[in-house]
Amino acid sequence: MKTNINYQISQKEFHLFVSKIFFNLVQSKKDEDRNSFNELLLSILPEVKKYIVNRLKRAIKKEKISEGKYKAEGIIDQLFIEVYEKIEEVKQEGDLYLWLFKKTDELLNDILVDEEFDQLFFENIDNYSKPQWDEMEERYSIDGGGDLVLEEDLEDISYNKSNYKLADVFIEENEKDLIDKLDHELSERKISNSIDMILHHLPQLMQSIFELYTNHQFEFEEIAEIKSISTQEVGQLLEDTRRSIKLNFNRKL
Questions:
Q1: Nearest to residue 175, comparing CAs of 122, 243, 235, 125?
Q2: In terms of domains, do 125 and 237 share one?
Q3: Which of 13, 38, 59, 121 could form a disulfide with 64 if both were Cys (CB 3.0 to 4.6 A apart)?
Q4: What is the DSSP letter of 55?
Q5: Inter-residue contact 166 to 105 (CB < 8 Å)
Q6: Span of 69-73, 94-98, 134-138 with lowest mean pLDDT
């Protein structure tokens, strides 16, 4: 739990770091100093790249795109152009980080086209038996090891695979006993892989909202802005995602 808290603090600190870069970016653009602009932007993109890599790898696993067709670096290159041309859209420093993710999401959506809502799976998720869940999880682990990484990121120290925790899913006070029991019976890696497996079977929109909230520490209002949906929709989709994940863990007990 301490590690998770430290990670959340570091994410908030990174949000502040990005805000401080804003005025330097704007000044570099005014000075037409493209090299300085690119260097500054590069310093604040590690988390954005992780988000790109995760969305691409999930699209590959779901066979929405073929492996190797799109590279994270190519999307980053497009983002550099987009940011340089449209940095004036950002009105204040505190909006820069959110705006970067929104632009990234627009570029990704042009490629992935978020129309993959797997209605059959989601409507019938309550009816899966424990053997079916176990078989699905085993197949997921065999097919991708739960840790599919794009080739260009294998040696990239800025990339780290998802490390989801029970606290990302179980948030109610009355769920503490369940958390303690799962913590006792399952390893951290098993917990993270189980969460990742369920996310794999859910729509891209639900996956990315969960990631933006847990891994990148955006608030509901910020995610709504990135995704161009209402805060109510963000809350509902996050709740639906957690419910789907909880169902899987309940079957393990």
A1: 243
A2: yes
A3: 59
A4: H
A5: no
A6: 134-138
Instruction: Among 113-127, 147-161, 210-224, name the most confident range.
Output: 210-224
84, 133: one domain: no
- Residue located via tokens 């808290």: 5
Kindly tell me the burial class for residue 214, based on how many C-beta atoms sit within 10 Å of its own C-beta (0-12, 13-18, 19 or more): buried
CA distance 253 to 248: 10
Q: Which domain does 218 fall in, by range?
A: 119-250
Between CA 50 and CA 34 the distance in angstroms is: 24
Is pLDDT of 127 > 50?
Answer: yes
According to DSSP, residue 32 is labeled T
Residue 21 pLDDT > 50, yes or no?
yes
Q: Could you give the C-alpha distances from 53 to 84, 122, 209, in angstroms and in order?
A: 22, 24, 15
pLDDT, average across residues 50-79: 86
